[in-house]
Structures are given as C-alpha cells and as structure tokens.
Design brief:
By secondary structure, the protein is α/β, with parallel strands linked by helices. It has a single domain, classed as Carbon-nitrogen hydrolase (Nitrilase/N-carbamoyl-D-aminoacid amidohydrolase), CATH 3.60.110. It contains 11 helices and 17 strands. The strands form 4 sheets. The protein has an 8-stranded mixed sheet. Strand 7 and strand 8 form a beta hairpin. Helix 5 runs antiparallel to helix 6 and helix 6 runs parallel beside helix 7. It is globular. About 5% of the residues have low confidence.
Length: 433
C-alpha cells in the first residue's frame, strides 16, 4: 500500500496530508449562523496566528514540509547559525531571532565574494498611546537598543527599522497633537543622535525611518529615512515617494509626497536604497532604485492585515526578481489603540484602532528565493547573510536590464502625462458595442 491518495482531480497527494485535511474539515465544520462577526474573528485570529511557517510546520509531515517550503520560498535560503549568547539575549528580552543564509553566488575569477549580513527589525510600541511623547519614544529607543546589541553580536553590517519606528502609527486619527510632537530633525534629532552613537560603536550602517520636522523649510513634515554610516555620520536622507489615501491611512493630513527622488547610498556594505511603505505598490518606484544601482532596497512599512496581507509576500519578492537586487520587507507588529475614536469613511462605526500590524518581515533575493518571515505577533530581528555578487550575476543570467526598453517607456510616459493624451486602444471595427 502506498502513502498516497487520489484527489478528485486525479492528483496524487500523501495520505497523511489528505487525512489531516479531512479531519480539519470535520472538526471545523460550521453553518452560516455559526460564523462570528468578521472583525471579531479577524482580531481573534491575529492574537493566535503566529505565522504561515508555524502552521505548516505544525501540520505537515517533515518530508512534505520540505517540498512545500521549496515550492513557496525557493532553494536559496538555509539556516544561519547565530551565536548562543545572541539567542539567549533575544530570549531573555522576549523577541524572536532568526538567521538565514541566501545561496552564495557563483564563484567568480575576477571578483571575491561580497558577503553582507542584513538585519531587519520589527517591533510593537512599548507604552500605551496615552503615555507622554517622551515616555513612548524613550521606551521604543530602549527596545531597539536591546535589538541592536543582538544584531551586533550576530555581526550584522546594515540594519533597518520599520516605518515611523519611534512612534505609534497615529496618522489614522487625523489629529495633529500630540502626534506631530514625535517629529524631529533628521540630522540633529534625539533619534539620529542615539543611532549615530550605536552605528559607530557597532560598525553598522543603520537605516532609521522617522517622522521628520524640516525646520529649514517652514517646519513641514516628511516621512523620511535617515541613512547613518558605520562611522556615525549621516550619509543622507530619502523621503517617501507615494502617500496612501486609502482606509485609515490618512497620511496626507500630515505630510505630502517626498522630494528626494530615488536616491541610492554608497556604503561600506553595498549600495542601499529605501522604498518607504506604500511605494512598494508602485513597480516604477522599485524600478528606479535599480536603475540607480541599488543592491539592497529596504521597504520599511506599517500595514495591517485586512488591507494588504495577501500582497505582502509578493511585492518585495517580485521587485527583487525584476530588478536584480535584494529586497527587505519590514512591517511593524501589534494592534495600536488610540484615546479617541475615529472613522474610516466606509460607513462602519467609529473605532480606536485600525487593525493588526502583522509583522512577517522577510528578505528576498534576486534569484527569486526568500527567507521565511518573522512572526505576525512578536517583535523580532531577522539576520540574513547574502553575497551581493548575486545581483550582477542575475542580471547576466536573465538579461532583464538589457531587455527592459527604458527608451520605449520613457516615450510612452512622456505622452501619458500630457493633458491631451489619448489611450492607445484599437477598437474592433466589426463590433456593434
């Protein structure tokens, strides 16, 4: 007798998987009347659903799990052994620590390997949103300080935090105070001073996405990432190019589209860029960082499950493939509750939070592989070792840059932005519609 059973479509699947599925169906069979309120159900799920990886590992036999993981993530990411002390410190401070190695690039005769360890940090806020601005920011600084120390123990070279990491993501409220008081100078604010010291101490490039107050230009706000070198100086800043106007993401109440373009920063550990949050939905945004020579593109985000979770595992990975660089998706974690109710413009009752930030940070490789994601519900540090030579090797293999036809699209875009533009649609002359 074989360990296989025939599905209704003729496919052969392992009997152990078939039996588990049948058992799950019978145990969880419900009627329409049994289905709870969708929002309550989602909230309950968010509290319990650790990650897709944990669900698969719990329910699939080891041999099947190996094949499923290969199909889902590709062959490139393998476990990276991290120092025992780092793992103990992470456990003591109650955050996850995961380490992976992306497939080493093919050995070249004219270039040595360019091994870099990338760190991605996701975290929840550390104090209630009713605490003072200083208390909230200091508590988050202390939390990140713990995680940066572990990143150093793991020999991380360049690390990035989530979008607006020093504060709750309060833009859903549409209230200015006290939330705008979290804004600070990109060059001289308390967060940059704190991180500059750590960057120099740990010989680590740090990417710090903050709410910036631009005092030199009328005190306007920007959603900004500050790039701090491993010697403690600010290399430069880059601002969020695309601002959402969807659901509770009322960010244009606070700041508008960035004015820094698609900057790429040359560091001791490779050429890096930062595509902040909503910019991941725009393929041209990812494209331009590649055109400007990026080898690692961070995507620090703050996004909730009900809106974007089905898209999350696809977008950064697709960008890594299409643009032949490493893409790092970072999302905050937890549910943030605010003092006052706010509405979403969808006819539903007012509420004090706008959903669960589902973490799930991961790194994707230009060869299409990706790491497992961090937890949906816990703080975490993801450490990934990669060889930046893989970026050029994938360009050589696939020829995406050689065949991308920038001239064709430049002409098309130039025509599309004209007021008299007409869409290039050819109608069927025989149609009566």
């Amino acid at each position: 007798m074989t360990d296989e059973t025939t599905r209704h479509d003729g496919a052969q699947i392992p009997k152990s998987v078939h039996n588990w599925f049948q058992r799950s169906q019978s145990e969880n069979e419900v009627t329409t009347a049994d289905v709870p309120d969708r929002d309550k159900m989602a909230a309950s799920l968010d509290d319990k659903f650790e990650s897709l990886e944990s669900i698969l590992a719990e329910h699939l036999p080891a041999d099947v799990l190996e094949k499923v993981n290969l199909s889902l993530r590709g062959p490139g990411a393998t476990d990276l052994e991290l120092p025992t002390k780092a793992k103990e410190t992470a456990k003591k401070n109650n955050f996850d620590l995961q380490g992976y190695q992306i497939k080493i690039a093919q050995k070249e005769q004219t270039r040595p390997p360019r091994l870099v360890r990338i760190g991605a940090i996701q975290n929840a806020i550390q104090k209630p949103t009713t605490a003072s601005v200083e208390e909230q920011r200091n508590a988050i600084h202390q939390r990140i300080d713990q995680m940066l120390a572990v990143a150093h123990e793991c020999q991380v070279n360049v690390v990035c935090m989530q979008e607006a990491w020093t504060m709750p993501f309060a833009f859903c409220t549409r209230e200015k105070y006290p939330w705008v008081e979290f804004a600070e100078s990109a060059y001289n604010g308390p967060t940059t001073k704190f991180l500059a010291e750590r960057a120099k101490k740990y010989n680590m490039v740090i990417v710090s996405p903050i709410l910036e107050r631009d005092e030199a230009h009328g005190d306007v706000f920007w959603n900004t990432a500050v790039i701090i070198s491993n010697r403690g100086n600010v290399i430069g800043i880059t601002r969020k190019n695309h601002i959402p106007r969807v659901g509770d993401f009322n960010e244009s109440t606070y700041y508008m589209e960035g004015n820094t373009g698609h900057k790429v920063f040359e560091t001791d550990f490779g050429r890096i860029a930062v595509n902040i949050c909503y910019g991941r939905h725009h393929p041209q945004n990812w494209l331009m960082y590649g055109v400007n020579g990026a080898e690692i593109v961070f995507n620090p985000s703050a996004t909730v499950g009900a809106l974007s979770e089905p898209l999350w595992s696809i977008e950064a990975r697709n960008a890594a493939i299409a643009n032949s660089y490493f893409a790092v998706g970072i999302n905050r974690v937890g549910t943030e509750t605010f003092p006052n109710e706010f509405t979403s413009g969808d006819g539903k009752p007012a509420h004090k939070n706008f959903g669960h930030f589902y973490g799930s940070s991961y790194i994707a490789s230009p060869d299409g592989s990706r790491t497992p994601g961090l937890s949906r519900i816990r703080d975490g540090l993801l450490v990934t070792e990669c060889d930046l030579n893989l970026s050029r090797q994938m360009k050589d293999k696939w020829g995406f840059r050689m065949t991308q036809r920038l001239d064709l699209y430049a002409d098309s875009f130039a025509r599309a932005i004209r007021p008299d533009y007409k869409m290039d649609i050819i109608k069927d002359p025989s149609s009566t519609k």
